[in-house]
Fold each of these.
Amino acid sequence: MDWSAIVANAPDLVVGLWLTLRLALVSACTALVLGALLAWALQKGQPWLKGLVRAYVDFVLGLPMLVLIYLLFFILPEYGITLSSPVVGVTALTLYYGPYMGEVLRAAFGGIPRGQYEASAALGLRPFEVLRHVLLKQALPVALPPSVGLLIGLIKDTALLSVVGVEEFMYAAKQAISTSYAPLEIYLVVALAYWLITLLLDSAAGFIERRLNRHRTA
């Protein structure tokens, strides 16, 4: 093991990892918002809106992530729309994971009996109180595990953004390998970093899920 190659390239790798986490955080938030809008449209929208949303969801669910990145980065400029590499990355991750988040939210909130909405209205609860005290307490334990799985997949898929010049973790690793000629050491560091991130997210999700479900096991 050439530890000197790891030490020499550690600052660049840390910068790349930090950008990866920032991109993932922004993309996860925007994908959640998009998913909520899609779930609402499928539940409450007009028939024509439901048809458009369903067509979009079906299209994205059958599309490889890399193809979507290429479409945004190489095809849009031909129609006068040029986006920077980071914007392409966030947009691609949002468009790709938004429908998945929408399906998770639709399943979580759709499983709540209609009678609970009516009971909340009969008690005089305001919409925010209904959301906080009635809906979220039941929907979050259902939505959390698949949502964390999607977040982990999103973080991993940021590695695909290196193909369009986004200077994230994998891009920094490729640059380090081109100068140090130590692919084993560099890729081992990358693999361990992704594994640790996955482990931390999974552990945090398990802790939160146990807290959310404590009233059920009390």
Amino acid sequence: MRWQKLQRTAFVVFLVLIISSLFAYQIFSENFDLEQIRQYLKNFGIWAPLVFVLFYTVSTIFIPSTPFMAIAGLLFGFKYGLIYTVIGGFLSSIIVFAVARKLGKERVESILENKYLRQLDEYNKRLKVGAIRDLIILRITPIMPFNILNILMGVSRIKTDDYILGTLFGLIPSNILTVYFGTLITKIF
């Protein structure tokens, strides 16, 4: 009983951190200096790719990934920038998914048993079987923030294997466009 209360509290704190960081980013995004981040990463020399992937992984747990994808294009070019952002985005999504699954899945399933939430529960049950296509579509379309989707999938019944495949295939299109945009900036300026 005590573990469940601690687990519930940790999940709520996790949700509040992610959601509040998204709001904070919206408010302070003008102060987000891409050139300063680019210069900082460039100082790491041959270690810059590893530092970038780690920085990307941790940072995108709390703030949107789009600026980092553009930085990857600027710093590493299209091919390597794409590889590094897919790796970082995938690791970030797995972390958020795993935390949400561990801390919130049982609680959400008990909430969905409510008679007023039957339709959500039916969709949740449907995710248990072949949700890869649904996840790819949700990843490609800008319907909701990246980590909100990671949290929702973490508390859903989606199989971990389906989540991994859907995430990998769903990340690639947006990463291609944004990293390419970052690469174009280097050619224009």
